[in-house]
Amino acid sequence: xxxxxxxxxxxxxxxxxxxxxxxxxxxxxxxxxxxxxxxxxxxxxxxxxxxxxxxxxxxxxxxxxxxxxxxxxxxxxxxxxxxxxxxxxxxxxxxxxxxxxxxxxxxxxxxxxxxxxxxxxxxxxxxxxxxxxxxxxxxxxxxxxxxxxxxxxxxxxxxxxxxxxxxxxxxxxxxxxxxxxxxxxxxxxxxxxxxxxxxxxxxxxxxxxxxxxxxxxxxxxxxxxxxx
Amino acid sequence: xxxxxxxxxxxxxxxxxxxxxxxxxxxxxxxxxxxxxxxxxxxxxxxxxxxxxxxxxxxxxxxxxxxxxxxxxxxxxxxxxxxxxxxxxxxxxxxxxxxxxxxxxxxxxxxxxxxxxxxxxxxxxxxxxxxxxxxxxxxxxxxxxxxxxxxxxxxxxxxxxxxxxxxxxxxxxxxxxxxxxxxxxxxxxxxxxxxxxxxxxxxxxxxxxxxxxxxxxxxxxxxxxxxxxxxxxxxxxxxxxxxxxxxxxxxxxxxxxxxxxxxxxxxxxxxxxxxxxxxxxxxxxxxxxxxxxxxxxxxxxxxxxxxxxxxxxxxxxxxxxxxxxxxxxxxxxxxxxxxxxxxxxxxxxxxxxxxxxxxxxxxxxxxxxxxxxxxxxxxxxxxxxxxxxxxxxxxxxxxxxxxxxxxxxxxxxxxxxxxxxxxxxxxxxxxxxxxxxxxxxxxxxxxxxxxxxxxxxxxxxxxxxxxxxxxxxxxxxxxxxxxxxxxxxxxxx
Lengths: 228, 493
Hints:
The structure holds 2 protein chains of 2 kinds.
Chain A: H1 5-24, H2 45-58, E1 62-66, H3 71-81, E2 86-89, H4 96-99, E3 107-110, H5 119-127, E4 131-134, E5 138-140, E6 145-148, E7 164-170, E8 174-175, H6 178-185, E9 194-198, E10 203-204, E11 212-213, E12 220-226
Parallel strand pairs in A: 1-12, 2-3, 2-4, 4-7, 5-8, 7-12
Antiparallel strand pairs in A: 5-6, 6-9, 10-11
Chain B: H1 12-18, H2 20-28, H3 31-51, H4 55-74, H5 76-90, E1 92-97, H6 100-113, E2 118-121, H7 125-129, H8 132-137, E3 142-145, H9 148-155, H10 172-182, H11 192-209, E4 212-215, E5 219-221, E6 226-231, H12 235-241, E7 245-251, E8 255-256, H13 262-274, E9 281-285, E10 299-305, H14 309-313, H15 329-332, H16 335-340, H17 351-362, H18 379-383, H19 390-402, H20 421-435, H21 437-449, H22 461-464, H23 475-492
Helix pairs in contact in B: 3-13, 17-19
């Protein structure tokens, strides 16, 4: 006999909530102790940038400082050094007018297909896409993290599946720490489908505590830092 | 309070937890295993120490995070309801399960509804707790672990020996041997980059074709209806992004109230676990694929599991168990864990945290040996990022373990299982003696005068130690003599 999971879940919910509520129903939530956070010393914007760069580099990311108009040149050179001739980018995404200047030396392909329609698009992304480039939403100095905010133009897998990931970070979008970023941008009111903080290339130390890069996500993270 | 007990369906973990003593003997005699654990624990302790250079920051954060988790627990039923409401508003379906079996059945049916045949799994200890892989494989659904450590453990047909680093008990040679036996075309090498490269090759193929992704959850944010996952490899992102169906499973204690609660907890979690100031990826999922989006799962589900957690919740002291954020620091610093390794415990969660939560999940009968498998050195409590008084809770569990059956109030399933008649009588006599000075003094006199009668071999105790020697006189007698001498001395002056 098949269990009706909907019915069962409903019963489980009321049982669990009843058990829990019985224990805390008299609790006074107005008298909770103050949760004192740690006050980090304030540092200059330049010090934030330096910290951001050094943490990313310590995590094996490559950081290149450049002007927006140089994006195509720099990316093209980096790809040539790796023997890569195609680059996947987000159609109509920020900086895409700069990115397409990379043609004709490198073939720039727009992510204009939906992975949900056909398996062949997944196959293409996994097997025939050596590199990608995305913009970023903001960044965090204290942990050397880049905030990716995937959109219709720059889908989630664009920054995940290709082995080499270029990410454009505007130094003026750098925040001191995660908490202040959330509060400055009021994230609780506008979270998208997915937000990812990225702090380096994919890695693992699961075999005998030996660090290896390129576990499942990008093997290389190349950060293009603007306005620094 | 009635507790469901069904011995016919006792989990495999209960059976292996019962064999604790035999497991310990087995693993203590395995030198290679002990070496692997010693090396790994030294590494992890060093990494953690390096990540907390400012003691003031550490202590402020620990206090803050303890209070955050205590607030969230005090509001738990309301936060769970809020979480469900906000997740559903975002398009994520929520399911509730009281037992591991119910959770597995929910997941199996969700997969069957989509005609799913292959599952890729991100690291999830709760799915280990429910033994989901076994359940799905019995229904002909292929279930592949994709975290490198979990993948190794699955190939070896083992269970994780550590909650953060599942394959910590294996060295690179053992992993190379394992790959040779199991992966066609693999050329034997102990080069870690090559080994990881091989795992990557096999698993990317699976990510590309899997129908379903299963993951755990590190923090479930009630305020926004958001599931946060912390990882380094990218397999968690793969499992939650590429397949068309994503099912997350977590314990009811993982809910937190505000998005603002995430940064301090996250900071302590990764630093306590692996000494990283942040993990490579922090993945925050708030909805399935929206109209027009080109990737991401069409459906996202969350399964909320109780499995004994509400039992721990019912006792104010034991409730602190649920503050745990599963960083693994307690096991990294535990002298017992380091020596016996993660498998000896027999439970899903090993080490100090395992000794605290497993009795609620499996009952004290199966886990009767665990609360006393501790030296009470206190290291676990000192490193715990949310300040759970682990040694104190272990002492409490010891008391629950030996309390007289039927004594009210009932606190736990299987309480009183460790009570032995002889031991209980000895303590009764001990207590009686200490209340009656004449009996106490005369038995002490006999014990000291006939001390030569104490046998030199006293069971297990003398198998690794020399027998204790009783003193010639009791302490009381010696103090009396000393006072007497002292007063003589003073009189002479």
